[in-house]
Amino acid sequence: MLEERLGRKEVEAGSKLRRLRRTDAIRDMLSENRLHVSSLVAPVFVRDGEHVEEPVASMPGISRYSVDKLSDHVGRLTDVGIRSVLLFGIPDSKDDAGTGAYSADGPVPRAIRELKSQYPTLVVAADVCLCEYTSHGHCGVLEGGTVSNARTLPFLAKAATQYADAGADIVCPSAMMDGQVLAIRKALDESGHEEELLMGYSAKYASSFYGPFRDAARSAPSFGDRKGYQMSPANSREAMREIDSDIKEGADIVMVKPALPYLDVISKARSRHDVPIAAYSVSGEYSMIKASSAKGWLDERGAAMEVATSIKRAGADIIITYFAEQLAVWLREEQ
């Protein structure tokens, strides 16, 4: 044994890793991963209507905003250093085909135009899916009671093009349809939007952590579930195939969603690819910290910072999080 050869004192002297943790300054100097506000993206819910700022009961601190109220909210985000937002639209009316998703007068195109006029340097990303706009709550067009991949792709491409026309910097297909990245990339290029970025929800799992989002976006499926097109939580090799496919089809950025239960997938993707990787710390991750801290069971700041750091450590370049504003404030305070 090492202790027998060198003696206990020599072993203890040679392996005191605690020396590396002795002071704040030393710990900061030796930190292997650092959170930075530039990595944070704030999800924003924008809805039809006027003069509306509607709190989401299941997501304390998060609200739905009408376009006329959106600028003030985003202004607060930019004041603390947030430079990127991801928009989700909530229409007043829905139909089987989700036509509101690709209407030029829908909440997302109107929000994009407003934000780009008020905050020209803000990076505006737009989620591309039909679930918020369909009366049945599924992410595509139904055929025989199931989502038709082939029939859905043209509508996703049309929605992405509308968002690019409005001025979006990034379009983000999240429907998990096979070939969605290729269809959207082709439509963008053909409509003169070769420079727009495409961030694929490449490894999007059929997760139990989406509940509060579906409340906020009013997008819960009216029947069945989304396991037929979103990924099984048991699979990570399949996630690599999805990510590989999206990159080949033209994705500039790939995403893993949710983040916290899938840190291993983020890490595996980071080891496999050099492309930018985003991780979406989803509504359930946010709300469980909020609820636990409200009960006094968790330190909200400590838990939120720890989760974000773990996502960064796993290999994510971009962290999409409902804690974005609070994280930005806390990071500023730590400087």
SSE layout and pairing:
Layout: H1 2-6, H2 8-14, H3 24-29, E1 40-47, E2 53-55, E3 63-66, H4 67-79, E4 84-90, H5 107-118, E5 123-128, E6 142-143, E7 146-147, H6 149-166, E8 170-173, H7 180-190, E9 197-204, H8 211-217, H9 237-249, E10 253-257, H10 263-272, E11 277-281, H11 283-294, H12 300-314, E12 318-321, H13 324-334
Parallel strand pairs: 1-3, 1-4, 1-12, 4-5, 5-8, 8-9, 9-10, 10-11, 11-12
Antiparallel strand pairs: 2-3, 6-7
Helix pairs in contact: 4-5, 5-6, 6-7, 10-12
Count of beta strands: 12
Instruction: Tell me about the largest β-sheet.
Output: 8 strands, parallel, barrel
Beta-strand proportion: 15-25%
Low-confidence stretches: none
Number of domains: 1
**Order of helix and strand elements from N to C terminus:** HHHEEEHEHEEEHEHEHHEHEHHEH
Give the C-level CATH assignment.
Answer: Alpha Beta
By CATH, the superfamily comes out as: Aldolase class I
Write the CATH fold name.
TIM Barrel
Strand order across the biggest sheet?
Answer: 1-4-5-8-9-10-11-12
Characterise this structure.
This protein is an alpha/beta fold and 335 residues long. The chain contains 13 helices and twelve strands. The chain has helices at residues 2-6, 8-14, 24-29, 67-79, 107-118, 149-166, 180-190, 211-217, 237-249, 263-272, 283-294, 300-314, 324-334; strands at residues 40-47, 53-55, 63-66, 84-90, 123-128, 142-143, 146-147, 170-173, 197-204, 253-257, 277-281, 318-321. The strands form two sheets. An eight-stranded parallel beta barrel has the order 1-4-5-8-9-10-11-12, surrounded by nine helices. A two-stranded antiparallel ribbon has the order 6-7. A hairpin with a 7-residue loop joins strand 2 and strand 3 (63-66). 46% of the residues are buried. The model has no long low-confidence stretch (mean pLDDT 93).
